[in-house]
Amino acid sequence: MKINSAEFIISNSVVSKCPQEPLPEYAFIGRSNVGKSSLINMLTNHKNLAKTSGRPGKTQLINHFKINQNWFLVDLPGYGYARVSKSTKATFQKFITDYFEKRTQLVCAFVLIDVRLEAQKIDLEFINYLGENGIPFCLVFTKMDKITRVKAESNVAAYRKKLLAENWEEMPPYFITSSETKVGREELLTYIESINET
Ligand code: GTP
Ligand code: MG
């Protein structure tokens, strides 16, 4: 898909104040610093559309970006600050769970995973949370440029095994990406385009 326009629309912390236009939207979620904002810039071919930082915790609000005038990309804050919690839900900031539970325009969540790391408990918890709430999602492995393709493939295979061990029947759709080299860009955009067309 060709990106003809990408514009920042609004930031906020209240789901009810998000744009009301009934356009399909796709949200990026994952641990702080995994590369959510960088991926939005990479997909849209903009350097600073979404604000990025080497330090975790940069994105603090729900940010809507309108793409090609007819769908939204949503940049969310990272999760993973609350280290220990009694319930899975409390582990994730309230407005993140509000967003996923109330935002009827959401078509698909992209859960970002650092391709270099073994499966992290908090990511598995979040994936299970999405599953329990019936929210469609894909996995996006990030920072592919930091390791070899062979190593990345073997880490993804290990991830798949882990999900099956967590009682998932199959690996969800996934993408291996790098915001540095733009690997995975076409695949992700084609996937979004195919959903937008149905
Ligand atoms: P929060 O907003 O804090 O939750 O973080 P985020 O997930 O939005 O991460 P962000 O895009 O701000 O990137 C965090 C750091 O990782 C920055 O220093 C980026 O330059 C770096 N980074 C992101 N994606 C990639 C990638 O694909 N390759 C490499 N090498 N670095 C990346
Ligand atoms: Mg961010």
From TrEMBL:
Cofactor(s) annotated in UniProt: Mg(2+)
CDD domains attached to this UniProt entry: YihA_EngB
EngB-type G domain span: 22-198
GO MF annotation: an example: metal ion binding
InterPro entries named among the record's database cross-references: G_ENGB_dom (IPR030393), GTP-bd (IPR006073), GTP-bd_ribosome_bio_YsxC (IPR019987), P-loop_NTPase (IPR027417)
Keywords, ordered alphabetically: Cell cycle, Cell division, GTP-binding, Magnesium, Metal-binding, Nucleotide-binding, Septation
Presence of the UniProt keyword rRNA-binding in the record: no
GO biological process, one term: division septum assembly
NCBIfam families tied to this protein: GTPase_YsxC
Purpose: Necessary for normal cell division and for the maintenance of normal septation.
HAMAP family to which the protein is assigned, alphabetical: GTPase_EngB
Family: Belongs to the TRAFAC class TrmE-Era-EngA-EngB-Septin-like GTPase superfamily. EngB GTPase family.
Name of this protein: Probable GTP-binding protein EngB
Protein encoded by which gene: engB
